[in-house]
Write a structure and sequence with these properties.
The protein is mainly beta and 450 residues long. The chain has 3 domains: 204 residues, Collagenase (Catalytic Domain) (3-Layer(aba) Sandwich); 118 residues, Immunoglobulin-like (Sandwich), CATH 2.60.40.10; 102 residues, Immunoglobulins (Immunoglobulin-like). The protein has 3 helices and 29 strands. A hairpin with a 2-residue loop joins strand 21 and strand 22. It is globular and about 60 Å long.
């Protein structure tokens, strides 16, 4: 099982007020209603490349263009949103210690940062300082105890993918629960699935929506907002904290964006292209878990598990599952679920080429693949209960069979065919057990246009 966790250390110089009206997304930002921000309020953002990038340590493969990889990562984000970076250099090697920022936004690969990493599970780390929500400093360091390259060498992490993820944290983004997003909590190592791990270099629609929610431009796009509430038998309602609410394009099945509900049950998804969507809410109890989403501070403080747990629910409006999103308009969409009915169907791992993991499967249009899924209740899914939500991706029910892996829960395999004209993006696998329970592996299939 491969797929190491990327994490951000977020040090808040001034903590958010517990009464601050924070919006639900894995970002927080300021708007006309006075929402507290955790973003840069001034631009350009001045980024200091440590001199270590020009003479990297031995854990980075000889000949690797470290500076080029960092620049491409910055360019990814600035090309999709109103973010501007200004590059400078610094002789500083180590990121600022907690609670002692030096106002230098450093990117460093120096071995001097070894103490910032307590394991090899984190290839990169970002330390963010903020004042009343506005980011004042952000430092990125690479783990000197793991190997990096940019040529796909097996057993190494892709340097550009790591930088791209960490720049997302530098901008104020938390983790995403969409498996194919650059900002999902884990990064694949080169060689997983017997392939180079380049997909997280490319920003998903969810990553782009997050950047635009913080920095624009959102012109011509719309928003969804609402509250996820559990109804009890006694008539009392309880807001659901830490649920994943995500939107799939109804025409293509592509996963466009998602958000995580606040303690109030509120969520908000911004920068959605106008169109029709399927909007789904489900517990974070699978490949991405609730405690991996955000840091211990801010609006998601105390998020450990989705509370209360509930089974996956598809939102409806006027007896239709099609939810319209209009340009330059926010659409209210709240929905109710049955509480304290914990999911019995909980896929935890996906895989291909004989391996299981928790990162998205990189697929190519016009090809057929054997895919694995493992988790509790998987053996209760009949062959006809496995499907894709996209017309471009088909699953052969006659190919479904048991698979043998060293896991504490059952696994199955099946064949997926990707049409030649499949648009680039992230797609889900939908599972339905024999008793009707459904669950999505959100963005588990990723198709790049590069």
């Amino acid at each position: 099982m491969t797929g190491k966790r990327l994490s951000a250390i977020l040090t808040l110089i001034a903590l958010f007020s517990v009464h601050a009206p924070l919006r639900a997304y894995t970002v927080q930002y300021r708007d006309s209603s006075g929402v507290i921000a955790r973003r840069w309020l001034t631009q350009p953002i001045i980024i200091a490349f440590s001199t270590s990038l020009g003479s990297p340590p031995a854990n980075i493969k000889t000949g690797t263009d470290v500076i080029g990889a960092a620049r491409r990562a910055l360019r990814r984000w600035s090309s999709v949103s109103n973010v501007q970076f200004f590059e400078t250099s610094s002789s500083v090697q180590a990121i600022s210690p907690p609670n002692a920022g030096d106002r230098i936004n450093l990117i460093t690969v120096s071995a001097d940062n070894a103490s910032a990493f307590d394991s090899q599970d984190n290839p990169g780390r970002t330390r963010v300082f903020s004042d009343s929500g506005a980011i004042t400093e952000a430092d990125i360091a690479l783990n000197p105890n793991v190997l990096f390259s940019t040529d796909g060498s097996p057993g190494t992490y892709d340097l550009e993918s790591t930088f791209t993820h960490e720049v997302g944290h530098l901008l104020g983004l938390e983790h995403s629960a969409i498996l194919g997003a650059t900002m999902q909590p884990r990064q694949a190592m080169n060689g997983l699935y017997n392939l180079p791990a380049f997909t997280q270099r490319t920003l998903s629609e969810d990553d782009i929506a997050g950047a635009r929610a913080l920095y624009g431009s959102r012109a011509g796009t719309g928003s969804l907002f609402g509250r996820l509430v559990a109804n009890s038998i006694g008539g009392q309602s309880q807001p659901i904290f830490g649920a994943h609410v995500f939107a799939e394009d109804a025409l293509t099945g592509r996963v466009i964006a998602g958000g995580i509900t606040l303690p109030s049950g509120d969520y908000r998804i911004d920068a959605l292209p106008r169109g029709s969507y399927h909007v789904i809410g489900q517990s974070l109890d699978g490949p991405v878990e609730a405690d991996e989403i955000a840091t211990a501070h801010g609006s998601y403080a105390g998020l450990v598990d989705t509370t209360p747990l509930f089974r996956t629910h598809v939102a409806m409006r006027s007896a239709s599952q099609l939810i319209p999103v209009f340009a330059d308009k926010a659409t209210s969409l709240g929905f109710f679920v049955s509480p304290n009915l914990a999911p019995a169907l909980t896929p935890r791992l996906i895989g291909m080429n004989g391996e299981l993991s928790t990162v998205a499967l990189p697929l190519k249009p016009g090809k057929k693949f054997t895919v694995y899924v493992a988790g509790e209740g998987i053996d209760e899914v009949p062959p006809g209960g496995i499907s894709s939500t996209s017309p471009f991706i088909s699953i052969d029910p006659d190919s479904v069979s048991e698979a043998e892996f060293d896991t504490p829960y059952p696994a199955i395999s099946f064949e997926i065919t990707v049409a030649r004209n499949t648009p680039a993006g992230e797609y889900s696998i939908l599972l339905q057990s024999s008793d009707g329970e459904i669950v999505y592996l959100v963005g588990a299939l990723t198709i790049d246009d590069e």
